[in-house]
Amino acid sequence: MIGGGVMIGLGVGAAVVAGVGGARVSSLEKQVDDPANMCVISMPSPSCQDLLDRGKAAESMTIAGAVLAPLLAGAGVALLVVGLKRRSQPKTAFAPALAPGFVGLSLRGSF
User: Fold this and answer.
1) Which of 13, 16, 94, 99 has the fewest CB atoms below 10 angstroms from its CB?
2) Segment-wise mean pLDDT, segments of 10 residues, the chain, 111 residues
3) 91, 110 in Cβ contact below 8 A?
4) What integer pLDDT is reported at residue 16 of this predicted model?
């Protein structure tokens, strides 16, 4: 069960990374499109090239987070379901014991 919780936490973290990356992409895109910067994509100035490079890195963060978030969260949920199913099984069980000339009750336990 601990593994499931960790995986869900990592999935949430990846979603946060995707959100932060998306916000950075949006902010950098506005800076590139700002007429004061005079960025020409075909021949960028050094300052514009820096903005473009940072935008590509932020876009990579967004894509990686968006891909990993549902995978990690899904794996975490699966691990939690399996862990909870195993816990819900009883540790002890009673069963009838029948044999020729014998009637009884058997107790089975595990730990």
Assistant:
1) 99
2) 89 96 94 87 88 94 95 93 74 81 81 62
3) yes
4) 96
What pTM value is reported for the model? 0.69
Residue with structure tokens 């506005």?
Answer: 30
Nearest partner of 26 among 63, 66, 55, judged by Cα: 55
Which tokens hold the place of 86? Answer: 């195993």
CA distances in angstroms from 38 to 4, 31, 53, 91, listed in the order given: 49, 10, 16, 72
Nearest-CA neighbor of 8 among 92, 73, 69?
73
Distances (CA, A) of 61 to 16, 55, 56, 85: 10, 10, 9, 36
**Confidence (pLDDT) at 87:** 66
